[in-house]
């Protein structure tokens, strides 16, 4: 089981390390590390490239998490469902600290979304519905996305055991850590 867990982590990490936003932005002559919030992820790509040009970034970042979850599920035996979560954690860590980009990556939100959609499709559908409703009411995709992502564990409770929801919380802590470190870097840069 340890070998499967390590394999899931490494495969997930390598998938996550593929920096889709950087590749897409460079094709359009933009270096995301030098513009906007300097985050090599979807939101900065969307601001710099526009909505239509950033669609491949959105799809690619979600796909990394989904593919990692599929790989993790394929490695699960004897009910060791945690291996799938390890694979998604690996993808999120790879997205945040990519080996192919000097360990400077994005915040892993969309990679989490892709993994969560595979790990608990029912919860993902409920969270997506909440995202759409909030986005329509507030006319802000950003607020809808926040409600969908942070509401996912509550939606997941309708379909999964508390242990799996706790594992989702562990995945979400990677997002929190990445945002915390980004905020610290911003503050340090202003002083």
Features:
191 residues, mainly alpha, globular
Order of helices and strands: HHHHHHHHH
Which bin fits the share of residues in helices?
Answer: over 70%
- Structural shape: globular
Helical element count? 9
Kindly report the average pLDDT value: 92
Instruction: List low-confidence stretches.
Output: none
Explain how this protein is built:
There is one protein chain. The protein is globular, with a radius of gyration of 16 Å. The longest helix is centred in the last third of the chain and has 29 residues. It is mostly helical and about 190 residues long. About 45% of the residues are buried. The chain is built from 9 helices and no strands. The protein has a domain of about 110 residues.
Give a quick rundown of the structure.
By secondary structure, the chain is mainly α. 74% of the residues lie in helices and 0% in strands. The chain has a domain at 2-107.
How are the SSEs placed, and which strands pair?
Layout: H1 2-16, H2 20-27, H3 42-49, H4 55-75, H5 82-96, H6 109-119, H7 121-138, H8 141-156, H9 162-190
